[in-house]
Amino acid sequence: MALTEGTANPRLYLQAQTRWRPIEIAFWLATLLPYALFPDYLSLASQIAIAGLFALSLDLILGYAGIVSLGHAAFFGIGAYTAGLVSKYGWGEPLTGLAIAAVAAGLIGYATSFVICRFRHLALIMLTLGFGLLLEELANSAGWLTGGVDGLQGIHTWKLFGYLPFDLYGRTAYAYALAVLFVLFVFARRLIHSPFGLSLRGIRENFVRMPAIGAPSRAHIRTIYTIAAAMAGIAGALLAQTTETVSLESLGFERSAEVVVMLVLGGAGRLYGGLVGVIVYMVARDQFSGIEPQYWYFWIGVLLVGVVTFLPNGILGGAAKLMSRRSRS
Amino acid sequence: MKRLLLAGVCAFAASLLATSSHAQGTVKIGVILPYSGQFADAATQMDDGIKLYLKQHGNKLGGKNVELIRKDTGGIAPPVAKRLAQELVTRDNVDILAGFALTPNALAAADVSAEAKKFMVDMNAATAIVTTKSPYMARTSLTVPQLIQTLGTWAEKHGLNKAYTMVTDYGPGIDAEGAFQKGFKEAGGDIVGSVRMAVQNPDFTAYVQRAKDLNPQGIFVMIPGGAQPGAFGKALAEVGINPKKTEVMGQLEIADEHALASMGDIALGIITAGHYDYNHHSKLNEEFVKAYNEDFKRNPDFFSIGAYDGMHLIDIALQKSGGKTDGESLIAAAKGASWESPRGPISIDPETRDIIQTVYIRKVEKVGGKLVNVEIASIPNVKDPVKAAMKK
């Protein structure tokens, strides 16, 4: 019903998409459950929320605009180092730290987007990978600024709003990370359900044809790449502020690859895909590595192979298929 | 989502059951190590050192039963290490944090030790500043300058005036370069040149050739363990530097058991500074190596000994504190502790909480058809020179 209405009138289609569905509201209410149910797992929860934000930022470019990136951690790392450095040199206020990190990552994202928008597919993988590795080596050799391999030392985050300290249990850290994630999620959701978001999906499907119907592909890619970079920067800054550590792994290849894995696991191009993937992956990793600290990777491998074999479009892709099959019968 | 939550609740309930048996007279130790990933072998050696000490002492430290909770960082990951330390303290209620193969992880976890006032034993991470991050931390391994600066001083006194340094361009390499040059120059030697080499470097020929052209009496080298010492040995042979004429000096990894196996006879004459080698001659060490081989079918290395002595320190601290497990009591008891380790006499500096130990200068020689490190000099009671310099 909604679909036929939508195809007749694009405005109505977009409006129908923006409406909050009950399951979404339930999901966000459920994110508060850790406070009641797992008060000992709040620091893990805060790192899940941060990884979720990072995956969401990748989803914007990979899932919606079809920009494959194996170097997205570059922006995560720029955000982390910026927030860390700002705090190290005397300004530990968290919210302004986030803003500065977002601007820094966004600026670098904007600068590189001029190259990114000229390439597709395999060339993009090489480009983003190369950019990520270059930046990692740069951070390694600029030891006077970044602390090199040992990581940045001397970060101290001030109390949130002046009176909420970041405690050992991660209570403040989770609330802070979750709130930032929610705000940015609402922003991303609005963006995706706007005409701009729709044209991104068009670019993903056919990069060349979009300009013919009046949507400048390259300009759109530059915009979304900059936004995604700033969001990744905020995620990195959150991690730097809540853990008071930054090291080279924050912009390393492994982080870039891992976020792609988590996004694909949950289902790319679905907003919630990254979040679900991150929750499943990180909870599984925490539990497996607790039981079997040496060989837990085996079980992660089994999980990934299982999901990819039986749910090629990720967990959410599989769920959507199941729902549509049920409603049809 | 619902099913996921259910699974989460079940897992949580299970973990509650598992941890509720916090009996009286039990000490809980959280061990944080990179059990998976590229540093897994180091973690295995350390874990085996821990296991051996516990086995030899009936799973008791200071009269208390020991419960170990192992956590994996999966490599260099300070945020993960910090979170694991937080969880160990808040969720598992551990009394002591231990392990730490890697400096960045140790630095991150040290914050938790300082904030929660928990005794922390650094069993490997070797950057000098690590112990300054928490007043409740002690170290039972080594510091890079402790070995390398001592080597520099020894080299000059040994009769070398001109030395060349070649190090890998990464944190430990740069630290070692500074430490060697400092020790060598302060003793009156002259550094004729130095080079920093790329981290991923399969061929050293060009670097070694350049070193040879400058004709130094000694070359100091610091490269990562693993495949590189073998490649370095090959370059020495190709360029024609003979370790018997030009002294080739390095950190202990370039002449450890695996490096020697891959270098072969070209390694003869290489000089290293180390605090432990399985060939060290003492009754205690022979027994240690034998017991280690029986249980784990391989020789212990410096990772093993750091962890083994780390457990020994916890044992001593618990005895001296009279069973108190809070950070204040344990660190007070650990300060000044001294004991005979398989590596020789060691103690914990009461001022810096860092290890004081004998540094051995060793030379690769063939003994009974096997390449081994033979001790040619020993410098007793060496403190970490970086922290000694800070105080001045």
Verbal overview:
The complex is a heterodimer of chains A (329) and B (392). Chain A has 329 residues and is an all-alpha fold. Chain A has helices at residues 2-8, 10-18, 22-30, 33-37, 42-64, 73-88, 94-116, 121-141, 143-146, 171-192, 195-205, 217-243, 253-266, 272-291, 296-310, 314-328. Chain A has a single domain (39-143, 151-328), classed as ABC transporter involved in vitamin B12 uptake, BtuC (Orthogonal Bundle). Chain A is 73% helix and 0% strand. By secondary structure, chain B is of the alpha/beta class. Chain B has two domains: 24-142 and 283-353, Rossmann fold, CATH 3.40.50.2300; 145-274 and 359-391, Rossmann fold. In chain B, the strands form two sheets. In chain B, strands 7, 8, 9, 10, 11, 12, 13, 14 and 15 form a nine-stranded mixed beta sheet that branches. Chain B has a six-stranded mixed beta sheet with strand order 2-3-1-4-5-6, sandwiched between helices. The interface between A and B is large, with 45 and 47 residues.
What Rg of chain B, in angstroms, do the CA atoms define? Answer: 22 Å
Most residues in contact, chain pair and counts: A-B, 45 and 47 residues
* CATH classification class of the largest domain in chain B: Alpha Beta
- The helix content of chain A is over 70%
Number of domains of chain B: 2
Order of helices and strands of chain A: HHHHHHHHHHHHHHHH
| Mean model confidence by pLDDT of chain A | 89
Count the strands of chain A?
Answer: 0
CATH architectural name of chain A: Orthogonal Bundle
Kindly report the name of the CATH homologous superfamily of the largest domain in chain B: Response regulator
Structural class of chain B: alpha/beta
SS-derived structural category of chain A: mainly alpha
The proportion of residues in beta strands of chain B is: 15-25%
**Coarse morphology of chain B:** globular
Query: How much helix, percentage-wise, in residues of chain B?
Result: 40-55%
Q: Which consecutive residue ranges of chain A, at least 5 long each, have pLDDT under 50? A: 1-6
CATH architecture of the largest domain in chain B: 3-Layer(aba) Sandwich
| Total of helices of chain B | 13
Specify Rg of chain A, calculated over alpha carbons.
Answer: 20 Å
Helix count from the secondary structure assignment of chain A:
16
Total domain modules of chain A: 1
